[in-house]
Specification:
9 helices, alpha/beta, 373 residues, single chain, three-stranded antiparallel sheet, eight-stranded mixed sheet, 2 domains, Rossmann fold
Length: 373
């Protein structure tokens, strides 16, 4: 694989973030900007791609990097095949309405795919005024009857790409019912609307479950929201859940790390936003201070967080954000564990065709269940 990498400050940062599994970038999730007279650069071809390893470091440390990177042979044949799928690196903004429609089509297909692998029942409900999905294993052991997992889905905070893909395999392997909160979305409802909805659902679950019977987890936007919610619960003096799962997220809207500048949604393949001074996920952030301790938990007092599993991958655009938040939990003295899969892109565990996806979902489920009482 041939690649030109540009490391610099603030890429539209999570504007390259995920619509998870959708092949679209968060920056493409917003309405297309007004047309200008600028001519879009031509997509890279084999003739114009990097043909040798090179790097140039500017006096301020900005790196201009060219690398030829093979696919790791340790990956499964299915994962290696997935890395061979090309994607244009041209900037093609997708209007929000179209993105949501595309995401809905994807999630409907993903639900069918996952239910073939992991049979469960799915129903819709409302909890504390918040729409939810209830995903229930076909057999729930008596020991798990009073336990529940709360999922906060991915989708860039402006769509739902995870309420099936994150819940069906977890419920199946954990043999514990899952409630997926369909929180309010940006840009119509910026921070802290999603946090408020998640807390409202959790408050309601506490009426029928002990906190040690509940675990909270999410992927991408949902992973970010999981950390935010944990800080909010502490601020509200509400009991923390038994465990957290932060699966490819971050906790710092003010300072993106390296990986956001190195990878797109599909790793090395696809459009990579030009570094800029734009705020990360500005439609979600709204007018909030990017160092608000709830919005960006890395600035919060994290002492006393529940046992937490962090999961990411070597070509994940949120690799840096995930490991930085993991380190912040460790500095606070928390039980924080990190699992990194080599050579795979953002939220690869959404794909039921990858053996690594099954492995990741089993590990996530095992960790969450082991901490429920």
């Amino acid at each position: 694989m041939k690649l030109v990498l540009g490391q610099s400050c603030l890429a539209c940062a999570v504007c390259v973030l995920s619509g998870l599994g959708m092949g679209q970038a968060w920056g493409q999730a917003q309405p297309a900007p007004p047309s200008t007279n600028k001519v879009a650069p031509a997509a890279t071809t084999a003739a114009t791609a990097v043909s040798h390893n090179s790097s140039y470091i500017e006096p301020n440390g900005t790196a201009h990097v060219g690398r030829i990177v093979p696919v790791p042979q340790s990956l499964s044949p299915q994962a290696q095949a997935s890395q061979r799928r090309p994607a244009t690196d041209a900037d093609v903004p997708m209007p929000l309405e179209k993105r949501r429609a595309t995401t809905d089509t994807y999630t409907a297909r993903a639900e069918k795919q996952w239910r073939k692998v992991c049979p469960v029942t799915v129903s819709n409900d409302t909890v504390a005024g918040v729409p939810v999905r209830r995903i229930t294993p076909l057999h729930v052991p008596k020991a798990n009857a009073d336990k529940v997992l709360l999922d906060l889905h991915g989708g860039g905070f402006d769509s739902d790409s995870g309420s099936f893909t994150e819940t069906i395999p977890i419920a199946y392997y954990a043999r514990v019912p899952v409630v997926a909160a369909l929180y309010r979305l940006a840009p119509e409802n910026p921070f802290p609307a999603a946090v408020d909805d998640a807390v409202a659902v959790y408050r309601e679950l506490l009426k029928t479950h002990k906190p040690e019977q509940i675990a909270i987890y999410g992927t991408s936007a949902g992973a970010i929201l999981t950390g935010e919610m944990a800080v909010k619960l502490k601020q509200l003096s509400l009991p923390e859940p038994a465990a957290l799962g932060i699966f490819s997220g971050f906790g710092d809207f003010a300072r993106p790390g390296d990986s956001i500048h190195l990878y797109g949604l599909r790793g090395f393949s696809g459009y990579l936003a030009t570094p800029s001074d734009e705020r990360i996920l500005s439609p979600y952030v709204g007018s909030a201070d990017t160092k608000d301790p709830v919005l960006s938990p890395i600035y919060a007092d994290l002492k006393g967080m529940p046992p937490t599993l962090f999961v990411t991958s070597g070509r994940d655009l949120l690799l840096s954000g995930t490991i930085d938040l993991h380190r912040a939990f460790l500095r606070a003295g928390d039980d924080a564990r990190l699992m990194v899969f080599d050579g795979l892109p953002h939220a690869f565990w959404y794909d039921p065709e990858l053996p690594e996806s099954i492995e990741a979902n089993r590990a996530m489920s095992k960790f969450l269940v082991e901490h429920l009482k």
